[in-house]
Fold:
Amino acid sequence: MSRLISYLLHFLPLQAGAGVRVRGDYTTGLNRHDTSPAAARLAVVFSSLGHLYIHLCTAFYFVIVLALEQQWSLPYPELIELWTLGSLLVGVGALPAGLLSDRLGASVMMIVFFLGMGGASIAAGSTSSPNFLMVALAGIGLFAAIYHPVGIPWLVRNTTVARGKALGINGVFGALGSALAGLLAGSLIDLAGWRAAFIVPGVVCALTGVALLGFRLSGRVHDRPATEDKVANAGSPGSRRVLPILLATMFVAGLIFHSTQASLPKFFEQRNDGLVGDGAFGIGVLVAIVYGIAGLMQVFGGHLADRFSLKWVYVGAIFVQVPTLWLASILSGLPLVLIATMMVMANASSLPAENLLLAHHTPARHHGLAFGLKFVVSFGAAPLAVAFVASVTSRTGDLSVVYVLLAVVAVAALVAAMLLPPERQPAV
Structure:
């Protein structure tokens, strides 16, 4: 783990905060510490690893459930609903997590995130009944709620230039987590059984928490004080109009993301037209291809967000999702894999602009609260998405209706995004 962190520190192409000295850190009790570029880059590294782990640990169940269908002889809709409470807690827990981050410090909350989610994943792999599995999955959801309202603002505060690029690279780690969820879970299931698919990622996540705790205790990781952007947009009438619009579009984006994440493994199982063989590994490979390729789009989205109007970058990403969602409902085989990749790419590319719009129009001292609200809304859509996918599957046995309806709600999000005020000055 320490070698991985050192590698990322050396090669991660981010420009972190300038070295300054700060007195009186209320989160550690130290009288003096150095917020050097190295410390800032460590924060960015752990933020990126956290993004990988949360998407890994909140997506691997949708592949694991394919093995549990056979092991426990329970129907797919009943098994997938075990994640409903966990997905609800990912959203509900975001706001208190953000508030605690504003009060206690992001690095403290990130330690809790790594240790808690890793431990809950290990517990899920040790269960022997659906009821206990539901409780363990709820634990994963509760601790996963910490990451987005804490880790993303932590990265923003520790990156003073090219924030769109930084958020894009961080987004690649999240997409890598979604990709590895299918590939790693499928591989571990075929090699060692479904329990290993929970336990191995849980151990890695917990060890990362131990590493962050060590850096924190040694003073090499801490929390950079919040500073306001020089662009005086936060609190303006235009900024006050941004939040309700973003809440609406973020809810729809969350509904699309979580419905796709929950349904795509089963959809590929139904419609892969012989592209992969039997077993969870083949389906996991297809999911990994989709999310792995799509994740790279976040770097491009961040590049666009640094150079063009945040509004129009955001609107364009939503626009592309409308036809791709509809096409996914009618395709199969290789064309389905290709259009699903484009669909997820469009969803992912909107995130840097979305996060910058929110940070740009919110006072820095309230970033935890603002991002907490964002992820209450976007992850609050997760239980609705899981229930939606389970209901459609139990009623029709075919998931194509899911993608038709998602295309309709994407149109609504597009209309809302068009109402955002003009944004021409990049938030850097």
